[in-house]
Amino acid sequence: MRETASPTVRVIVPATTANLGPGFDTLGMALDLYNHVELTETGEGFVVDVEGEGAASIPRNESNIVLRVVRQVYELAGRKPAGLRLRLRNEIPVARGLGSSAAALVGGAVAANELCGNCLSDQEILEIVTSFEGHPDNVAPALFGGVVVSAMIAEGDRTEVVSRKIPPPYGMRAIVAIPDFPLATKRARNALPAVVPFKDAVFNVSRTSMVILAFIHNDWDLLAKVMEDRLHQPYREPLIPGMGDVFSAAREAGALAAVLSGAGPTLIAFARENTAEVAQAMEETFARHGVSCVTKELKPCAVGAKVI
Ligand code: HSE
Hints:
Radius of gyration: 20 Å
Structural class: alpha+beta
Shape: globular
Strand content: 25-35%
Bound molecules: L-homoserine
Number of domains: 2
CATH architecture of the largest domain: 2-Layer Sandwich
CATH class of the largest domain: Alpha Beta
Distance between the termini: 29 Å
Number of strands: 11
Largest sheet: 7 strands, mixed
């Protein structure tokens, strides 16, 4: 008798850098570094395999968040799988500010939706995954690619996530300096104040609006002027030794701007030239502050999660 193959779906999802300086919890960009999620319907049991980044720390049991989002998608689709095998092959470093959890969750949700006959829309996937993450700035670009502007709009019981995509900047490179220590987003958010000065809020409203315009118009002189923040970076600086000096070194080496990637600890510089010099300056400056890091030159990526 011929054996029927178990249905399997594979999804690749890009890394993301959230905030883009002033756009706290609002802006994000997809980058060409990927997590791979494979989901198979099986006869019984729920199995999680993890390879690559986070293999030593990511739980394999029912508490695995990707498995939880997969099961939620099945439930919403009105299906009950007898068993599931989830394989995560991760290239995105965990707890470093490059959207590894958003990528894994988006991958799981998209894979489950595909196996359930795509009964959920992208908008529903966006909202489900955002409810796991708490904010949409990594989730939206992981799902859609490009640079994405998002807002959460609460209406009664439902929180609508509104997001709009800008094509990724042409010819721009993102140089990331990834420290060898993790920083939990929760800890980095706990460092933020409950109240900020009004003038700092105004500072960020103006810079965020200008960053969006700079991306829409590929206006790099403007980007270099306005990619600044007063809402989160100053409060997080004590958690990342050398942060301010690494920003200055990256700019002196030719970067247009340098900011915290998401909640950190990764620092990200945007440059159109001298990228090797920028990477070297970031690495050396971190080293002077006793932080060892890996640098990578990444490209903004136009496409989000993809079933392959
Ligand atoms: N906007 C979030 C933060 C991104 O900065 O805390 C990290 O998940």
